[in-house]
Amino acid sequence: MTKPKSTRWKSGQHAPESGQYAIIGPRGGKTGAERTVVKGEPLPPTPKKGQTYILVDPTKTESK
C-alpha cells in the first residue's frame, strides 16, 4: 500500500491556504526549512532548483 502524495506547489504559485510550507527537495526529501505564507500570496523562491513546497501547518484562525 503506497502513501498518497501531498500536493506540491512551485515557487511563484499562489498559496491556496495561509500557513507553514515546508521546502521539499527534488527527490522528495525534507530539507528542514519552512516558510510562512499568507493565502493568495506567491510562494517565495526556493534555495535550490527543483525544490517545491508542501503545506505542513495550516493557519487555524479564519480571516473575516
Characterise the protein shown here.
The protein has 64 residues and is mostly beta strands. The protein has one domain (1-58). 0% of the residues lie in helices and 33% in strands. The protein has strands at residues 19-24, 30-37, 52-58. It has a three-stranded antiparallel sheet with strand order 2-1-3, with no helix packed on it. The protein starts with 18 loop residues before the first strand and ends in a 6-residue tail after the last strand. The mean pLDDT is 89.
| Low-pLDDT residue spans | none
The strand line-up of the biggest sheet is: 2-1-3
Count of extended strands: 3
Mean pLDDT: 89
User: What is the percentage of strand-forming residues?
Assistant: 25-35%
Computed structural class: mainly beta
Order of helices and strands: EEE
How many domains make up the 3D coordinates?
1
Residue share in helix? under 10%
**Gap between N and C termini, in Å?**
41 Å
C-alpha-based Rg, rounded? 12 Å
Shape: globular
Largest sheet: 3 strands, antiparallel
How many individual helices? Answer: 0
Please supply descriptive tags for the structure shown above.
64 residues; 3 strands; 3-stranded antiparallel β-sheet; globular; mainly beta
How would the blueprint of this fold be written?
Elements: E1 19-24, E2 30-37, E3 52-58
Antiparallel strand pairs: 1-2, 1-3
